Amino acid sequence: MDKPALSHPVRRLARRAVVLAMLGWLSAAPALAAGEAFNVDGIAIRGYDPVAYFNKGEPTRGSKAYTYFWQGATWQFLNARNRDAFSRSPERYAPQYGGYCAYAASKNALAPTDPHAFTVHQGKLYLNFSPEVRETWREDVPGNVRKADGYWPSLRRRL
């Protein structure tokens, strides 16, 4: 038996529930990663190549053969060309808010990210906690960026 498709208001409510659960989890969570950039075991953005989001338009796994250490984490790249581009201008390619969830930052919180839940907006990379949270983020990217930019200085001091 096929399940009926969820209506738009129900999908929206479900996304909000995911976001609220994420933020509730975060309020009780300790610091997520040492250093300024979000990392897991010292590897930034779970080993994905930040430059590839711009030149390939999709999340692409980096390689241990092409790395660069920046902001307390090792960043991995698909190839030497991407690594070299990043090393010349890391701020151009690194995700905003240290690679932490952009939507959480807009709510004055820190959250880990899923490299597949990304948005490139006005030449900047934003990562989110999950694809569901990314959909909520995309409902008002300019407004969420303004809020997150305002909260980021105090969030950064917590790292």
Description:
By secondary structure, the chain is α+β, with helices and mostly antiparallel strands. The chain has helices at 8-28, 52-55, 80-88, 90-93, 102-106, 131-138, 141-158; strands at residues 39-40, 43-44, 63-70, 73-77, 114-121, 124-128. It has a two-stranded antiparallel sheet with strand order 1-2. Strands 3-4 form a two-stranded antiparallel sheet. Strands 5-6 form a two-stranded antiparallel ribbon. Helix 1 crosses helix 6. The longest helix is centred in the N-terminal third of the chain and has 21 residues, at 8-28. The termini are far apart.
Tell me the total number of β-strands: 6
Order of helices and strands: HEEHEEHHHEEHH
Largest beta-sheet details: 2 strands, antiparallel
Physical arrangement of strands within the biggest beta sheet? 1-2
Number of separate helices = 7
> Which stretches are poorly predicted, pLDDT < 50 over at least 5 residues?
25-34
Question: Which structural class do you get from the secondary structure elements?
Answer: alpha+beta
Beta-strand content = 15-25%
What characteristic shape results from the CA principal axes? Answer: globular
